[in-house]
Write a structure and sequence with these properties.
By secondary structure, this protein is mainly alpha-helical. The chain is about 50% helix and about 10% strand. The strands form 2 sheets. Strands 1-2-3 form a 3-stranded antiparallel β-sheet, with no helix packed on it. A two-stranded antiparallel sheet has the order 4-5.
């Protein structure tokens, strides 16, 4: 996605059949749009999607899942909110407590998704976004384990392996809160390090390996 110049000096970005043309003013953008659509359809015999074609300020545009913002007079990339919502929906599906998956298979599916998603959006500034998402994801993973340890006897046996004091094991094992609230209680047991050791990849760690900005 490298900006290029049109004959009249307008910068544009094209990826496959998606393109953006950058102008200095709204009036210039509207004039350019009025000229370029007839050219694309009349000369190149291509169809322009009118529903997706618009004149808008650069930070209100969604392009290939990305959004744009300005920092120190420089245009930078971030993940568009709609793309974030889709990503979280996918994670909800992969961490569903009712899909019957084993933890090893679940970790594998999550890793596949994380690698693909992060590689696609690696041009974006998203360290804070991924740190927040990782916290949320770990809580969902803890909820999965908590549901699997559904009997008090099972919870007691598993929690005792973490070397907790007897009173703490008893307190956690007999927790009567809902699954989601109980998952928060497991922070001290299923830590980030412990969850990673069980094969679950973090989005932040992978992003730091492949990010280009």
């Amino acid at each position: 996605m490298v900006p290029k110049k049109l004959d009249r000096g307008h910068r544009f970005v094209r990826y496959a059949d998606d393109c953006m043309v950058f102008c200095k003013s709204r009036r210039s953008a509207e004039r350019t749009l009025g000229n370029i659509v007839p050219y694309i359809e009349g000369k190149l015999f291509l169809k322009v999607n009118r529903d997706k074609t618009e004149v808008a300020y650069f930070n209100r545009v969604k392009y290939l899942g990305y959004a744009f913002y300005r920092q120190k007079r420089e245009c930078r990339l971030r993940v568009h909110p709609k793309s974030v919502a889709k990503m979280k929906d996918k994670i909800r599906n992969l961490t569903s407590r009712s899909n019957g998956w084993g933890n090893e298979f679940r970790a594998e599916r999550l890793a596949q998704f994380i690698r693909g998603w992060v590689n696609y959006f690696k041009l974006a500034d998203m360290k804070f976004l991924l740190a927040e998402t990782d916290e949320w994801l770990r809580r969902k993973i803890r909820a999965v384990y908590w549901k699997q340890w559904k009997r008090v006897r099972t919870r007691y046996k598993v929690l005792k392996q973490f070397g907790l004091p007897e009173w703490k094991v008893h307190e956690l094992a007999n927790c009567r809160k809902g699954v989601w609230r109980s998952a928060f209680v497991l922070n001290s047991v299923l830590t980030k390090k412990e969850i990673v050791s069980r094969g679950f990849m973090t989005m932040t760690d992978y992003y730091l390996k492949v990010c280009v900005n």
